[in-house]
What we know:
The chain has 6 helices and 5 strands. With 171 residues, it is an alpha/beta fold. The protein has helices at 22-41, 71-82, 92-96, 108-120, 147-161, 163-167, and strands at 10-16, 42-47, 59-65, 84-90, 138-140. The chain has a single domain, classed as Rossmann fold (3-Layer(aba) Sandwich), CATH 3.40.50.700. Bound molecules: iron/sulfur cluster. The site of iron/sulfur cluster has 11 residues, from helix 1 and helix 3.
Amino acid sequence: MNTETPFEKIKIGWFVFSCSEDNTIMFTELMNDHWQEWKRIFDFRHVKVLKKNNIYDAFDIAFVEGAIASPEHEEKLKDIRGRSTKLVAVGACAVTGMPASQRNTFTPEQKEAIQFLVDRFGALPEVKKVSDVVAVDASVPGCPMNTDMFLKAVNALVAELRPELVADPAH
Length: 171
Ligand code: SF4
């Protein structure tokens, strides 16, 4: 139990795979309006854009940004899933794979031309979306992500994980 609040804060993880992090930027922009509210109910346990010292243990909500492009990504994502109650895919590449997975649609000749790069970086034969690898509880599409849908997903998860906060907003 957190000593500053009468309830256990919701533990948040934010993880980035193959992505240029537009969704991370939108997340931090949302803090202009939501920081006071979120710092009261969220424990930003592993959010590298916010702090240097992060804790990688258990999460109530893990947000995952970017496509899954290597076996290491697959293993890491499965590990995150295993330690998270809810997992949310954020942004186009996490939700649909595209545009990061564009090489999946290449012709055989194009694939042959880039094979040396796939080999050099130890990449998967085909780039995957998050739900190809693990179960996903919510998806927020768009790039950058649709912030209205993000807030809707976050609020729904807060209501599910901590119904007492909705029942008594004074908490
Ligand atoms: S297009 Fe894909 S890689 Fe680029 S920022 Fe959006 S989700 Fe990330």
